[in-house]
Amino acid sequence: MVARIKNEEDLLGMREAGRCAAKVLEMIGPHVVVGATTEHLNQLCHDYIVNELDCIPAPLNYGGGGGQMPFPKSICTSVNHVVCHGIPSHAKALKNGDAVNIDITVIKNGYHGDTSKMFFAGEPSVMAKRLAKVTQECLYKGIDVVRPGATLGDIGYAIQRHAESQHYSVVREFCGHGIGKVFHDAPQILHYGRPGHGEKLEEGMSFTIEPMINAGKRYIKILPDQWTAVTKDHKLSAQWEHTLMVTADGCEIFTLREEEQNLRQ
Ligand code: MF3
Ligand code: CO
Ligand code: CO
User: Fold this and answer.
1) Which of 42, 71, 101 to mutate to test the pocket of ligand 1 (most atoms within 8 A of CB)?
2) What's the rounded Cα separation, in Å, for the pair 216 and 232?
3) Residues β-bridged to residue 99
4) Helices (H), the chain
5) CA 194–ligand 3 middle distance (angstroms)
6) What angle do CA 102, 263, 238 make, to 5 degrees?
């Protein structure tokens, strides 16, 4: 079943969950500094999510079906060539120029808000900054397409075209997803595709768009910890994510941050 906002209660629930997830990213920004460990960032986010926002961190103990180890932390921290699902660790202290994606998913009153952005510790390289900027543009170009009647292929195409025009590549193993009371629901939102192909969008559908864009080739591998996805060629990867809903004339982004209020419809 496709994730769908069925009534006013769902809409208010998703707005609140999205706002909470965005607030975690706003809170953590100043703490992403040289020397901070990714476990320290995890601890700060966990405490804020649980104690200040009265939410549940959805990643903690997530998965684990089919014999997989459940995800052991409350947020994902993916540094440099880590594509996604990086596991926070005491052993991972940020160095000058590190690019880190922080991915937050909270559950508030049963509803999920899922969002991520890129941060830098110290002064990033021109290359890392450019990849992060283009990847954010990919997210926004995907979002721009969203309205009733557009197709999933239209979203994927907009993202892929922009990434490849900059000689970057799109990761294919992970995708956006329907979201609501369920974390990872139908439909799958591929970040590549062909215009006019795939399911048509309808008012009320709610899903994430979360392109993972590589500076080098698109191929990835999963580390023995069963979660951490890294680029095969060890070149940089970046990701940005929002949770949104299709409206009559476009979409409503549930996870907008203060710095993005210009995107409000
Ligand atoms: N937040 C990720 C997403 O965007 C999923 C993380 S699942 C975890 O879908 F178990 F790795 F945390
Ligand atoms: Co997601
Ligand atoms: Co996410």
Assistant:
1) 71
2) 9
3) 120
4) 8-28, 38-47, 126-145, 152-165
5) 24
6) 30
**Tell me, what amino acid is at 169?**
S
Residues paired with 249 in a beta bridge: none
Q: How far apart are CA 18 and CA 28, in angstroms?
A: 16
pLDDT by residue for the chain (265 residues), tens only, comes to 799 999 999 999 999 999 999 999 999 999 999 999 999 999 999 999 999 999 999 999 999 888 889 999 999 999 999 999 999 999 999 999 999 999 999 999 999 999 999 999 999 999 999 999 999 999 999 999 999 999 999 999 999 999 999 999 999 999 999 999 999 999 999 999 999 999 999 999 999 999 999 999 999 999 999 999 999 999 999 999 999 999 999 999 999 999 999 998 7
Cα 7 to averaged position of ligand 3 atoms, centre (Å): 24
For ligand 1, residues with CB inside 6 Å are 59, 62-63, 71, 76, 85, 103, 105, 114, 210, 227, 241
Phi/psi at 66 (5° precision): 60, 30
Global confidence as pTM: 0.98
User: Is the C-alpha dihedral spanning 144, 212, 43, 108 positive or negative?
Assistant: positive
Is omega for the bond preceding 59 within 30 degrees of 0, making it cis? Answer: no
Three state DSSP letters for 191-212: CCCCCCCCCECCCCEEEEECCE
Contact 71, 62 (CB under 8 A): yes
